[in-house]
Amino acid sequence: MSSAQSDLEVAKRALKNAQIELSEARSYIDELVISIEFVNADRQRLESDIATLNFDLEDAQRGRRQAEKRIDRVQLKVNRLRHELRRELHRSRQYHHVVGNVKPLQAKIREQRSGPCNITAIQAKLTDIEAELAAAERDELDF
């Protein structure tokens, strides 16, 4: 009987130790559950932040593409205007060349009127140059 009582006491102590360990294990499990809930909340917050960053990235990429298209359109316009400017400068030089030839001929005609010369030939040259000038002006208006 004394050995049965002693075994009973040992069993009671073992039971008590097992209950303490069970309580500690439950406490540890509760802490782990709380930690898991915090980790899940952090994960959801991070996923939300990543989704927001992805949207912002896509928006920035769309903006960049639109800016590149605007740059391309402006570059085309600049090139077209540059070409038109060159063409106008060329026309202007032609016009000034023709006008420059007219003035000396007019002066020659004035000089020649006072003396014997072939005024008709000079007037014909003047008429030709005036026709070139008129043609240059028409070309300028066409563009």
Describe the structure.
- There is one protein chain.
- The chain is mainly alpha-helical and 143 residues long.
- It has one domain (2-142).
- It has 2 helices and no strands.
- The protein has helices at 2-114, 119-142.
- Helix 1 runs antiparallel to helix 2 (119-142).
- It is rod-shaped.
- The termini are far apart.
- The model has no long low-confidence stretch (mean pLDDT 83).
Cα end-to-end separation: 127 Å
Per DSSP, the total helix count is: 2
- Percentage of residues in helical conformation: over 70%
Structural class: mainly alpha
Low-confidence stretches: none
What would the average pLDDT be, to the nearest integer?
83
Summed up, the domain count is: 1
Q: For the report, how would you describe the main beta sheet? A: none
Shape: rod-shaped
Assess the beta-strand content as a share of residues. under 5%
**Count of DSSP strands:** 0
Strand/helix succession? HH
Radius of gyration over all CA atoms, rounded: 51 Å
